[in-house]
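Ticket 4471: requesting a sanity check on a complex prediction with thiamine diphosphate. Repro inputs:
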Amino acid sequence: MPDSSHKIVILLAGDSGDGVQLLGSQLTQGAAQSGQDVRTLSDFPAEIRAPKGSIAGISGFQFQMASTAVHEPGGQADVLVVFNVAAYVKYRDQLKPGGILLASTDGFDKRSRALAKLAPDEDPLEEARVSFRTLECNFQTVTKEALKDMDLGSKAVSRAKNMVVLGALTWMYAFDYIMVREALANKFSGELAKVNDKAFMAGYYLGETAEWSAFKHVMPSHTLPKGTYRTLSGSQGIAMGLAAVAHQSQRELVFAGYPITPASDILHELVRQRSKGITTFQAEDEIASVTAAIGASFAGKMGVTASSGPGISLKAEGLGLAVMLELPLIVINVQRGGPSTGMPTKMEQSDLMQALHGRHGEAPMPVIAIKSASHAFDVMLMAAKYAMEAMTPVMVLSDAFIASSAEPWRIPDLSQLLQIRPTEADISRMPYERDAKGVRPWIPVGTPGGAHRLGGLEKQEGSGEVSYDADNHQALVQARQAKVMGIQSSYPELTLNLGSKSDDMLVIGWGSTYGSIHTATEQLRRQGHAVAHLHLVHIYPLHPDLDAVMAEFKQLVVVEMNQGQLVNVLRARCPKHMAFIGQTSGKPFDALSLTETLLNTMSS
Amino acid sequence: MPDSSHKIVILLAGDSGDGVQLLGSQLTQGAAQSGQDVRTLSDFPAEIRAPKGSIAGISGFQFQMASTAVHEPGGQADVLVVFNVAAYVKYRDQLKPGGILLASTDGFDKRSRALAKLAPDEDPLEEARVSFRTLECNFQTVTKEALKDMDLGSKAVSRAKNMVVLGALTWMYAFDYIMVREALANKFSGELAKVNDKAFMAGYYLGETAEWSAFKHVMPSHTLPKGTYRTLSGSQGIAMGLAAVAHQSQRELVFAGYPITPASDILHELVRQRSKGITTFQAEDEIASVTAAIGASFAGKMGVTASSGPGISLKAEGLGLAVMLELPLIVINVQRGGPSTGMPTKMEQSDLMQALHGRHGEAPMPVIAIKSASHAFDVMLMAAKYAMEAMTPVMVLSDAFIASSAEPWRIPDLSQLLQIRPTEADISRMPYERDAKGVRPWIPVGTPGGAHRLGGLEKQEGSGEVSYDADNHQALVQARQAKVMGIQSSYPELTLNLGSKSDDMLVIGWGSTYGSIHTATEQLRRQGHAVAHLHLVHIYPLHPDLDAVMAEFKQLVVVEMNQGQLVNVLRARCPKHMAFIGQTSGKPFDALSLTETLLNTMSS
Amino acid sequence: MKAKDYLTDQDVRWCPGCGDYSVLKQLTEVFEAIGADPDNTVLISGIGCSSRLPYYINTYGLHGLHGRAPAIATGVKLASPDADVWLVTGDGDALSIGGNHLIHLLRRNVNVPILLFNNEVYGLTKGQYSPTSQPGQHSRSSPLGSIDQALNPLTLAMGANASFIARSMDRSPAHLREMMIAAKAHHGSALLEIYQNCNVFNDGAFERFSNKQHTIDHTFHVEHGKPILIGKDQDKTLQLVQGQVEVIKLSPAGDLSQAWTHDIHDPIKAYALARMAGDLRPFGIIYQCERPVHEQEVHRAMAEQGQQSLEVILHAGRIWEV
Amino acid sequence: MKAKDYLTDQDVRWCPGCGDYSVLKQLTEVFEAIGADPDNTVLISGIGCSSRLPYYINTYGLHGLHGRAPAIATGVKLASPDADVWLVTGDGDALSIGGNHLIHLLRRNVNVPILLFNNEVYGLTKGQYSPTSQPGQHSRSSPLGSIDQALNPLTLAMGANASFIARSMDRSPAHLREMMIAAKAHHGSALLEIYQNCNVFNDGAFERFSNKQHTIDHTFHVEHGKPILIGKDQDKTLQLVQGQVEVIKLSPAGDLSQAWTHDIHDPIKAYALARMAGDLRPFGIIYQCERPVHEQEVHRAMAEQGQQSLEVILHAGRIWEV
Ligand SMILES: Cc1ncc(C[n+]2csc(CCOP(=O)(O)OP(=O)(O)O)c2C)c(N)n1
Ligand SMILES: Cc1ncc(C[n+]2csc(CCOP(=O)(O)OP(=O)(O)O)c2C)c(N)n1
Ligand code: SF4
Ligand code: SF4
Ligand SMILES: [Mg+2]
Ligand SMILES: [Mg+2]
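Returned structure tokens:
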């Protein structure tokens, strides 16, 4: 009898060669198209291709789907699908007791057990059968059988295994198999398309024939607002957001980057996307990319750059220059585990203080934090608005989780997008003559009569000529600061993400912890606790109403994936005791244990 | 009748070609050797050699001397010595009403007035005679006369003018002219020595003959502790401090730098000094210098690097690596006016937040602030102690003011210097196996049986092998933090620099503001106000007793040459209201106006 | 516009006697000669005495970061491919901290003339030895003589596959103007090394090449298709002997067929000439070739590949209706 | 010690089939052959797949920062001039972000052999084009073909006045070992470019040079004092024609006196050989010369100038008693 709970967490795992990420993206796409809300989380191995069958080489893909809104990829999994024993060993602790284990038994043979460094006589499936509801199937054989008339080598057969699993799961959750099939047809061509389709259909029929009906689980459909939908990852959200910036500002963009995990995907998306009005440039390093972007902004296009960890550190000097030149610039930091090279594929929110202060001198610049893939799109528009309207570099914080996490997204109506009005090329003003908002003109190279000189030395207010005058410097330090504070007037209203001012405790977060905090807070509220959630988008300047909001609550807790960064910023401006919950494990908060931690914080 | 007040501020100013800096250093040296306490301040023009006679090209040298302890170069001058009209125009506002103006009239002719862009008929001396006690003398003629039998061109004569002035002032303040003369004899040789000596003596006799006796001012002598003295600038303090580090730690040093104002002088001093055990390396840029220093530390010597502004920003990535490798490293930031290229020759304390947070990831490192030239010497020993005993990079903050400011310094007894015991090359421990203090071993290249591999990726606690494990990362982030906190156990006691816990208000500062704050606080105390002064040396970790000390006072004020940096760090840990007094004009606080501002803060 | 109209009203702040004045002057004269459009001309520099030049010229200008001028200029060119961008840099700026950006600019062949002021010293920071300083040079950071080997900007450029390299001198105004015009006319990155005297920290570094009395013994001028002739009597030429360039007498005297004929398109001989770092050095255009220009390639590829509208991008791939 | 004793117990984490395995293996064999002392051997690398190598070798090792290995190695050498330091780097690491440090290391002539793994791609970041990628290369950051011109590591090194340049290949183990030994034996910076196949992101980039069937048409080996002979029948040689290296038949056939004799000390011909970036390329030691070694010069100068004790330093200059 089909089960029908509202939320299911599925974790897929296998060798990098098993195509787990592809399986995951097709499956979540199918889920979304079948009316589920979905959030995903990829867990890449650190190596390009670690030895086959080794634990280090396992790649994971987790998602949560639900017929109501979900905000995070979920904690412990209801279903674990493993292509081999190493995958099982790596992830068994993440499967709920009594959860479903779908195991490809061909990956559990003696050789596989040896590759996973298990004792020769150890059969982990024995133990599994006790703890979990197991579904054991030799997918290799099934795939071989399905493709027998296609004359393929065993490697090619292996590679189609993920399609069989895709079919089986599509059946199991009663996704619209025609859509999934169509999507495959669009993605692949020629021989490969045929192979994949056959394998997919074989998987789809497998459930029936193998009598897996007890595992079948029909999900009720999530009622979403009407519209055209697509799935969106954080990297895509940023790339599309930049396309939207070009559209809304009527300014072309120059994106300059240098490959680094996990920021590189933005460049990859941009070159694939071939957006009208965006020129991309792969520079020789991060210093060249930030300074090339500054050059582009000087020339009158909008310069954008992105990086992670080490690359962001290298851009420090360039960002200071952009502050001094008062040119628009967007810099995107896709945070990863630090310090130094750290854990490049893992997530962390430990660059916030660097975003605020990682430059010499008084060099203030707006900092905005992305909280999810779809939010990435909106944030790019905001960042560009502030950059082009206030003539300032803007730092956007994303992270490794957001970058690859995907969710269904309603494609916005272009007429509803944020308006951006770049500062005018007003040559009647001197290069550093400020308008009422404290903003100097933006005069692109080629503007008749607009010739002017900029530089990193302190400049005379107004003329922009070099000046070492004491009072002028004092005034300009303050003018640059005031101008940045000025963007507050464009901020949207500050609203609680959950709860109201009459609640007792306020949980404050920023960035990719959104989903976990939201879920945990929701849970506490359901349990009757008066807990509210506020997720900060504007880290600098903070929202002008924030102090007042914080003052309304008896208890304040800040949750971050670091050792305490935003919390100290807030402590410096709020006399109230502020609790802190931090984690730097490279993984997102588990909503369940976060709920408990918050509960303890409340009662303590 | 000779005057005899206890403190005199003298400001010398002229074209860069006039040798004002040399005059200043010889004069203060003479003052110090004649028993005065002295603090100096150089004001360099931004250009190497701006057009002769222009205001932009004026170089200034100010000092305060006193028969009691002085702590800063003073605010408004009692005496202004100008070599030309541009110098007068630039600095006239800095001379006290009724102060003495000593003007070299040859620099006030028509041509000079034109160069200074004055109206042809404007004679500033007229106005000067009203406001000041003027002493007018054509030093060019005096010098020419003095050197007439030496057959010199007018340029060479001009160049000796500063020696005449030196002689005149030596006479005026009754310094020991034999010592000054001797010093000149040591500094110059050959023809030049003769020229200078003649000019000096001519100046010395000038006072008598010119009947300047009314201006003569015999300073009582300052009673200093017995010992051998020398004058010391901040750059010298650092260079000698590093020599002392090599001596005390019995470890050789590798200093890697890249020229930048005002940090370059450290490299210049080091190459001149030729210290036993210190290798210097002028790298191709700041990134190369910090990474070469790290390489040296890996090899087993103590790596040191220094820079300013833009160069420090460029080192961010390297510092993060040093944190991860847990290798000793000293990085010295001689702060200057920012942001960006900013005001390279001016002082500012605006890099404190960068020192704390200017790296991606959780990358804590000790930060120590130098408060004066002599303190620089002591701080280098502390920094090296923490670096080598806790295996950590250490950031030392100095600034443009400290770098060139000079003071008399008692040469310390070597047996009294701070002990440094570098972490041992204990190969019985694994490379990342920590001792009781959380410190890993330091195993120089070449240690038999010590081969090991380090890297910027997160590492397994103990073995140091690469690890992406979540719990391990969490633990190591904390272990690195805890280890840095551990240096607190080596801190000297936290003592108030002035006043006691029973006072009402505590003024907190750090770095080169020491002199101004000290003087202002002293003044307030003299006026009967219960004000204490605490000058922080350890910025990170803060002194463990600091919170308790702050809790004792009713009122807290933080004074910094920035827009509010330390103050926010303290606010985050102290619920009390904290007032802030900031300045970013590129100039030190004037003690007099600081006194007033503090007074206003008290009563508000 | 006249040469002087290209000057801003800013006081020029170099030391009296500095070679930079000459370069500034020649540049304004070149601007007059080529009719440079101030609205479409951009000077990009790094940090150093030389890099102050843009402040004095009445066009668009950006005084950037130490060493990063090539990257900034690349960004300007990507955004405004048709702007006339000039790069202004020094030996420290271009070859010490900025060496990497320079070689990548040269390899990409971004269309900019590069004025590299080589004074073999860091002027602005008050006289430390630079990568082009001669071994043994006394300076503030090498009071007892530097031990570093010198970098040769011209061979480095040949190593990075530059499409134009030339050398001139502050004290040869006419030649300097000619070289600037040639660099501007070149289609691609054009590296012009300018020997420039820093009379404060490295006075006379190029005395033997610039002093009229010696110049004839220490310099020769190369021109495409013309024989290389050396010495007061122009009776000597060069030949390559086992990897060394040697001076030989023409024999029979005056027989120009024996002379090394300069071919700006010959990279190997250009490299040989560029290596001449001793007491005899070539001036003029040493090498030139045609290669695709980066910003044009970028925009050509973009045009070929087609650019998508926002509407299309948002709806690309799998979409569905709810 | 045997080759395998130089391996650590770490799992090697390169993709199966990666050319890096061969380089690792040859290096351990070279260590056995030269009797490398693990206590005194140091491998310094940057970031990249190739730069992971130090983790697998049981000596001192430092996996540093992307592009900065040359600077780190220089620091190690300044502190420990007698340590046997090797530099391990990739085309992205050494030539993209790290190009400047590399040329300064070469110019200073720090005594380190440099193993430059050139796979013409960024492997670790999953396959973007690199500075050595051929124009038109399809990659994750250039799905429609890269438009950048390639940088040539060997000409770049000649431009920076390197004292040793050589080329070998992952698939020629014996030759690779020989080149490693020669690089180690060289007194100064020794740049060894190793063609290395990245079978995941740029498979077959060097197929024509490494595939036994083609190699004879596309490669030739140079050895000092030996004639350069080309082709299956070794009946061709090279000659320089107007700046181009051309293949010509020996005529009369077999007359070696007509052949280009390789002279590793000839920088001009070395540059000509290094420029051969097409379908026929040289392998072996292309150039070598003796120049002062940086760290030795530093310590020689220090010894000559004399080092002062702390006591002397503190009391130098003007002091007085109170
Ligand atoms: C990142 C950074 N490092 C160092 C400096 C200091 N600095 C300014 S100019 C310069 C050297 C300039 O030499 P060069 O390019 O030869 O110019 P010149 O003054 O000789 O014309 C240095 C080291 C700086 N401004 N920024
Ligand atoms: C400062 C910085 N920028 C970027 C990166 C990301 N990154 C790591 S390796 C690499 C390229 C490596 O290419 P290569 O040196 O050719 O090594 P390969 O992997 O091909 O052996 C890049 C861009 C980084 N780690 N640090
Ligand atoms: S320091 Fe040298 S290069 Fe700089 S302006 Fe003066 S003379 Fe010219
Ligand atoms: S990505 Fe390429 S270079 Fe890196 S390990 Fe795999 S095959 Fe080797
Ligand atoms: Mg220079
Ligand atoms: Mg590579």
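Notes from triage: The pocket of iron/sulfur cluster (ligand 4) is lined by residues A 48-49; D 14-15, 18, 20, 49, 119, 123, 198-201 (CB under 6 Å). Leaving this open until the requester confirms.
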